Structures are given as structure tokens and as C-alpha cells.
Amino acid sequence: MSRTAMAARLAAVGIASLGLVATMNSAASAAPEAGRVSATAQEWGGGWNDTRDVTIREKPSTTARKVGTLKKGDRVKCWVSGCSSVTGGTYKCTSGSPTEKQWHEVRWAGKKAYAATRCLEWGRVE
């Protein structure tokens, strides 16, 4: 992927994230039931990939324990509003792709986990 295409993709993710935060209503601040995420929180956004499986990890690193696999076509919810990301260990989505370091915090089996940011598409998920 060219640097221009990558910059455009990054800008689109940022704009989409801002739009998600701006459209949240006050219901998002309501405390969810024990062990459940509120319906509003589930609409914050998430990630998906329709071309390959993506590993979900305990920490933002390829050496961290694997906690699951997001199967091709499945969705994963963001951990918090705005789909926050952190800088972590390096990874490549495919053997020919550039090295990346950004990881999104996601909800996996009710716990915080991490998905490689550039290996998924990000936006609103129902």
C-alpha cells in the first residue's frame, strides 16, 4: 500500500472515529449491567476484516498471549468509545505489507484485548 493510500486510510479512520464520538448520546454514560456492555456502548464501533483471520492478543504485541482469532467476516467491538488505539509491538498484516505499531483496544470474551489496527477495517458495528 502506498504512503498516500495509507495516509488517506488513516485520515478516514480518524474522521470516522470523531464522527462516532460526536454522535454518542448521554445514554453512553449510563452504567451497564454487571458483566454486560450497554447497547449504546456496543454501537461505538469496532473492527472487521473480510479477507483473512486476525489474531486477538492479551497485550499490544505479537509476542503477547493469543486470546482468540477474529474469523474472516466476523466483527469485534471496541473496548471504549472512540475505538482507542495504543502504540505497541511491531507487526505486519501480510508478508508484503509495511511494519506497523498501532493496536486497537477491543472487547474479547468480556475482557480488554488488542487487535492490530492496520489489519482490520474500523467503523460503526451493529
Main beta-sheet strand count, sense and barrel state: 8 strands, antiparallel
Q: Which secondary-structure class do the elements indicate?
A: alpha+beta
Radius of gyration: 14 Å
Q: What is the approximate shape?
A: globular
Work out the number of β strands. Answer: 8
Q: How far apart are the first and last residues' alpha carbons, in Å?
A: 29 Å
Encode the helix/strand succession as letters: HHEEEEEEEE
The percentage helix is 10-25%
Low-confidence parts, pLDDT < 50 over ≥5 residues? 16-42
Mean pLDDT: 74
Count helical runs: 2
How big a fraction of the residues is strand? 25-35%
Any overview of this molecule?
The chain has 126 residues and is an alpha+beta fold. Helices cover 20% and strands 33% of the residues. Strands 1, 2, 3, 4, 5, 6, 7 and 8 form an 8-stranded antiparallel sheet that branches. A hairpin with an 8-residue loop joins strand 2 (54-57) and strand 3 (66-70). The longest helix is centred in the first third of the chain and has 21 residues, at 3-23.
Fold blueprint:
Elements: H1 3-23, H2 39-42, E1 46-48, E2 54-57, E3 66-70, E4 75-78, E5 85-91, E6 100-108, E7 111-116, E8 121-123
Antiparallel strand pairs: 1-4, 1-8, 2-3, 2-7, 4-6, 5-6, 6-7
